[in-house]
Amino acid sequence: MPDTPADQPSSDSTPEQRTLLQSEGQLLESAEQPLADQALLLMDEDELPEGGPLLGAASGEPLDWFPVVALCGSAGSIGALEQFFRNLPAAPGMAFVVVVHLAANQRSHLPEVLQRFTNMLVYEVEDGQRLRPNTVYVLPPDKDLSLLSGTLLLLPPTQAPGHRLPIDFFLQSLAKDVRERAVAVIFSGMGSDGALGLKMVMENFGMIMAQEPETAEYAAMPRAALATEFVDYVLPAEQLPAKLLEYARQPPLERPSAVLRGGDARPANALQKIFLLIRTQTGHDFSLYKRNTVFRRIDRRMNAHQIRDFAQYVRFLQETPQEVELLFKELLIGVTKFFRDPEAFEALQGYLLAQLQRKPVDAVVRVWAPGCSSGEEAYTLAMLLQECLDQLPTKCLKVQVFATDINPEGIDHARAGIYPPNIEGDVSPARLQRFFSPVEGGYQIRKEVRDVVVFALHNINKDAPFIKLDLLVCRNLLIYLSSELQRNLLPVFHYALSPDGLLLLGPSENLMGFQTLFTPLDVKWKISRRNNVPYSLARISHFPFSLTHQAAVPSIPPPVTSPAPRKEDHFVVLIQKMLLRTFAPPAVVINSKGEILFVNGRTGRYLEPAPGLGTMNVFDMAREEMGFELSGAVHRAHQQHEDVTVEGIKLRTESGYQLIRLTVKFLDAPDALAGLLLVVFEGMPTSKRQRRQARAEEILTRDSVVLALEKELQYTKHRLQTMVEEMRSSLEELKSTNEELQSANEELQSTNEEAVTNREEMQTLNEELMTLNVQYLTKTEELSLAANDMKNLLDATGIATIFLDNDMVIKRFTPSVARIIPLLPTDIGRPITHLTNNLRYEGLPADVRQVLDRLVGVETNIQTRNGEWFAMRILPYRTLNNYISGAVITFIDITALKQLEQQLQASTALAESIIENLREPLLVVDGAGRVLSVNRSFAQAFQVEVEQVRGQQLDQLGRGAWHQPALAAAIRRTLDTGQGFDDLVVHTTFPELGPRHLRLYGRQLISGGKPTDQLLLGVSQLSE
């Protein structure tokens, strides 16, 4: 289609658009540019002057060099778009393309809706339409939109409805076509459409904005955009236009993000230098934070100072210590609020309650919340624990919540506990009343809650952790850290928690391969319980805190809490310990790997520390003479689950050789020791002959050495053969298990694909329904406005009205009805026949039934018991489809009319009485010549009956004796001019009376101060 200049309406423009364009100076006055410059901007390409592209007067850039803004959204984005356009000027110098999810089989009213909020032209995109600045283009339903050389192209969708991603499709095309002029704005919506397209916009140096999730009706799309870490600005919808205009006014510099993400100008060690500067000044190391997170925050600081080169920014940091502090604050994660993800805290409360019920009386409940920021999450835990304690009235438990962060300002703010009034959206009214005190400017946490929480500066990857914790909450902190640091922190969390302690992570965090340390309780909200498994502190030895520099000690199962022993119990324990030291042989308890878990007696004769780093492994510490016998015995006992005894092991001592008995027992009871091994060392009695033989064997011959080596080689071969057979058996089992897992994986993958397909289809259907809901909401608002207008109209008229259904049940009524029938709002839904009224009329129900049966209206005048009169009208209630859906009763107050009528009747009666008693003959005629009345004197004088005369024509009265042209002319003249006549002499002959000479006069009658068409005719003289 041909291009349409921005200042001229096309042939298919709506009347509102043509009226808008024809409004004198409406767009030009708001553009903030000279009139001549705007005229140039509104010219077509074929009108450009020769000698090169047309340049804008304000910026000196080519005409086509204007930003293209993609406004993307889904469910709930109509309100955000309204706020966005209402805060834009009439001519921002940009083109806007609105891409939202729309129902495929319904016509979209979005262009008409958006036209109400902006002075720019709003078009539904047509295939081949060229982009123009200061214009809004809306994607039509069931189409994919692409951009090529500034031309919008519509394509039929190639994906199924449940798989379509129209926002991603357009953003990728937009980024490739306009590159750094592309701007993507993500508004409210469901799903994650647009997350892939944002990467293309970022890679082509475009700008990305998102609506603040807390202000979005549906926050899924803004949160998905933020998860990509490519968003430059996150603001409420009404604040986005100001930031967009500020960005558009900046000169088109090369984006610093291009340098940050691999440009040739990027120095190899620049990022490490930035980390060094921050660590030197603040003491905190950000080298283990995710690179993308760090890049985005450095990018924002470089944009603020208009620095393009990464090395230049490093120099700027060296010269400006204040910038290091600002960058440090920029790198901090400060996203938190009260009861973030309320479902997660509801689930946590259930597990906490069960854990607290197992705590002994007067115990201390210890909780740690690292990365507490401004304290909302720490106070949330304190409130949650207090609510749990309320459900345990029989226990007196103390609560300690440790909240830590590396930001001193955040800690100070958290200690004060003062928060703005908008927390009312996150905290229920009951909790506000219980845990908060109103203060100027917001709310403050009550002192009893603040006393429970201890705030401290703490670096999670440097300082020693809090220990013996019942709960550790680390939500949405690990996602900002590198995978290496996450893997290092989880064993620290395991060490910090008490047995059966709870760990709560964020929705996007996981256990990173440490599933053996924790048992998942709630997969969705990442609630886990600490497993009481043995582990070595060497797993956290890479951390620089003092704990890891201590010698490793074996993990011993925690003692079971029991009541304080009595005096006689203490005596028995001492006796048992003495007997064990005196008569029990030295022994150790080990696991299948040889790690020593418990030592009894003096084992120094049999075990000794191995050279190098200290370990507690029995195979490394065993004396050389008993190494392979100990290994074989432990192996057989573990595999066969039976006791193994090896006798006659020669152990070299200072006085010669000693024979020992080595016993390995497999423990299967109690449950706490099941699977462990007990290794017992017992000395054997040695005779003098055996000692002499041992001394003689000290001088070993070649044959004896060979014999010993052959014996050891035979044992080694036997162990090797056993291990090979076991390995083969294990390999076969692993192959079978692998096949089963592969089959199960394929089934799960198929099921997952079906679930994803169903989810996306449901998501698309939901978005379409939301779009329809918005349109219906607009219609509902219009209907509500019409209903309000109708209500005000009925109230203003003062007409009492009752609406009934076909069963004569009241549907609604106007307030004026109370004067006639005392109705209350609670009477809606009751039959009108059940209600008393104030009428002197008993036929109302019958009249209503008659109207419903015959569909013919009824009108009558009725009177109330207090004397008021009403004109009652009953009509059928017809719908727009001409369906009878009840009846409408209206009462119009005619009391004043009735009173006037009575007064008129009284006045008429008085006038007739006066005329009737006059001795002079009189009669009253109207403009048509009819006799309205005569008095008694006239009837006697002309021998006529009063009742017979009324209604007759005057010229027919007395058999034509009154047919006098002069009289008729005088009557007509009097009625026309209002001037009466006197002494009109008429000569006529009456059949009964004979000839008569009459002298007549006439006067026009006046009623209510106004002349009527009636005339009083008097006979002043009557003679023969």
UniProtKB/TrEMBL annotation:
GO molecular function ontology, one term from the record: protein-glutamate methylesterase activity
Keyword Nucleotide-binding in annotation: no
Keyword Ribonucleoprotein among record annotations: no
Domain CheR-type methyltransferase: start-end pairs: 271-531
Biased composition (Polar residues): 7-20
UniProt EC number: 2.1.1.80
Keywords on record: Chemotaxis, Coiled coil, Hydrolase, Methyltransferase, S-adenosyl-L-methionine, Transferase
Active site (record annotation): S74, H101, D193
Protein name in the entry: protein-glutamate O-methyltransferase
Region (Disordered): 1-20
Domain PAS positions: 907-954
Catalysed transformations (reactions): L-glutamyl-[protein] + S-adenosyl-L-methionine = [protein]-L-glutamate 5-O-methyl ester + S-adenosyl-L-homocysteine
Domain PAC per the UniProt entry, residue ranges: 856-906
